[in-house]
């Protein structure tokens, strides 16, 4: 496929931090994708919450299945916009690799714990995993991914306005142009994330019994979709009807994003990758009408799903688990695993200690965090 002139090309990649071999059958961005898929951190996403905690049921989405769905939507969008599918897929697969256990509740817990130590950002933690923590090669730490994949992962939500000390130090070593907008492929991955979680939360929330088809039809655009489907397919099972709703909504969002993005490219006279990065706003976007529809959908999900008492109680417990672990490890580093004690001793500053402990907790699965909490706080727990 011929790429658009403003797409990211393999031939003009800014390369890797460390010298690496060339591969005659895979492009650099394909190799990035493969290294991400084969990483331990990517596999751990199977045990990390999307909305439901890991033990709530095997059919609900996890961070892993969510990431795969985002990658699929990203490839579709990139293909139809003549963009680099391989780079888009790599960024999509990596976009949540640094997320804390227990979803946003775990992230809130780490942000609370780290507010006096530089904060916590899962995008920065993703970068840290890919450049330091995952170690598979003899000559360097990390996965040694291309500049474009690293930049797209840490900036897929837009320019980074507030960098912590670790990110500033890394940027000096391998500048990611943090103040500029990311590649158009990274922007696509960001919007694919929105498309995936909004629609798939409809499916998960319905199957969990938090709302009914009748409730969903309070949204006019869903009522229209269902009326058409029911007319063409009478007497269908409700699970099939909900699947039809999410399928139609995803298609509508994808087509809207393609049209609006093409309109923006023409309106802003985008010719090169530099035009994308130097723009004053995202080139990729939904129309105003679609933004309103997504806002209404999110309001519905907030009312019926995200604030449901079962979810709220699990979020509260999850946040407490993360905060308890952080505080007990800060109080006594000897409670940490031996492999981490070498880095966390009484000879380093509290800020450095906090950052090591935060990274350790962030890279746990839900089950690992629960088990560690049980070992430390449940007096009847048998080791």
What is this structure, in a nutshell?
The protein has 383 residues and is mostly helical. It has helices at residues 28-37, 40-44, 63-80, 85-94, 103-113, 122-133, 147-155, 165-173, 184-207, 213-216, 220-232, 238-267, 273-277, 288-306, 309-331, 338-341, 350-362, 366-377.
Structure, described:
With 383 residues, the protein is mostly helical. The chain has three domains: 35-173, Hypothetical protein af1432 (Orthogonal Bundle), CATH 1.10.3210.10; 197-310; 316-377, no CATH class. Helices cover 60% and strands 0% of the residues. The protein has helices spanning 28-37, 40-44, 63-80, 85-94, 103-113, 122-133, 147-155, 165-173, 184-207, 213-216, 220-232, 238-267, 273-277, 288-306, 309-331, 338-341, 350-362, 366-377. The longest helix has 30 residues, at 238-267. It is globular, with a radius of gyration of 22 Å. 43% of the residues are buried.
Can you summarize the main beta sheet? Answer: none
CATH architecture level-2 label of the largest domain: Orthogonal Bundle
Shape: globular
- CATH structural class of the largest domain: Mainly Alpha
User: What is the arithmetic mean of pLDDT?
Assistant: 92
What would you report as the Rg, rounded to the nearest angstrom? 22 Å
Q: Give the assembly state of these chains.
A: single chain
Unreliable stretches: none
Count of folded domains: 3
Count helical runs: 18
SSE string, helices as H and strands as E: HHHHHHHHHHHHHHHHHH
Spatial separation of the terminal alpha carbons: 57 Å
Helix fraction bin = 55-70%
């Amino acid at each position: 496929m011929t790429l658009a002139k403003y797409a990211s090309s393999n031939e003009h990649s800014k390369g890797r931090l460390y010298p690496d071999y060339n591969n005659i059958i895979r492009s650099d961005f394909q190799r990035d994708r493969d290294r991400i898929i084969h990483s331990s951190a990517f596999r751990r996403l199977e045990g990390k919450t999307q909305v439901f905690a890991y033990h709530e049921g095997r059919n609900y989405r996890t961070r892993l299945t969510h990431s795969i769905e985002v990658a699929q939507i990203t490839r579709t969008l990139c293909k139809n916009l003549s963009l680099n599918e391989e780079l888009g897929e790599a960024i999509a697969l990596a976009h949540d690799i640094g997320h804390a256990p227990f979803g946003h509740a775990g992230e809130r817990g780490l942000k609370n714990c780290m507010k006096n130590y530089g904060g916590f950002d899962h995008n920065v933690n993703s970068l840290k995993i890919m450049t330091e923590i995952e170690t598979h090669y003899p000559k360097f730490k990390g996965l040694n991914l291309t500049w474009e994949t690293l930049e797209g992962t840490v900036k897929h939500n837009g320019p980074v306005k507030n960098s912590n000390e670790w990110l500033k130090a890394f940027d000096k070593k391998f500048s990611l142009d943090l103040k500029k907008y990311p590649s158009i492929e990274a922007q696509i991955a960001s919007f694919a994330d929105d498309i995936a979680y909004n629609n798939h939360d409809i499916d998960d929330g319905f199957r969990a019994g938090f709302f009914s088809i009748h409730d969903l039809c309070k949204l006019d655009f869903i009522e229209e979709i269902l009326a058409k489907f029911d007319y063409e397919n009478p007497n269908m099972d409700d699970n099939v009807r909900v699947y039809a709703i999410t399928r139609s909504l995803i298609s509508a969002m994808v087509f809207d994003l393609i049209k609006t993005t093409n309109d923006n490219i023409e309106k802003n006279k985008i010719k090169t990758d530099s035009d994308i990065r130097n723009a004053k706003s995202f080139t990729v976007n939904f129309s105003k009408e679609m933004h309103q529809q997504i806002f209404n959908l999110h309001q519905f999900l907030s009312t019926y799903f995200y604030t449901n008492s079962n979810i709220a109680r699990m979020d509260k417990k999850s946040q407490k688990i993360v905060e308890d672990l952080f505080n007990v490890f800060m109080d006594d580093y000897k409670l940490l695993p031996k492999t981490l004690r070498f880095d966390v001793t009484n000879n380093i500053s509290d800020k450095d200690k906090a950052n090591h402990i935060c990274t350790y907790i962030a890279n746990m699965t839900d089950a690992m965090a629960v088990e560690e909490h049980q070992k430390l706080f449940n007096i009847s727990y048998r080791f």
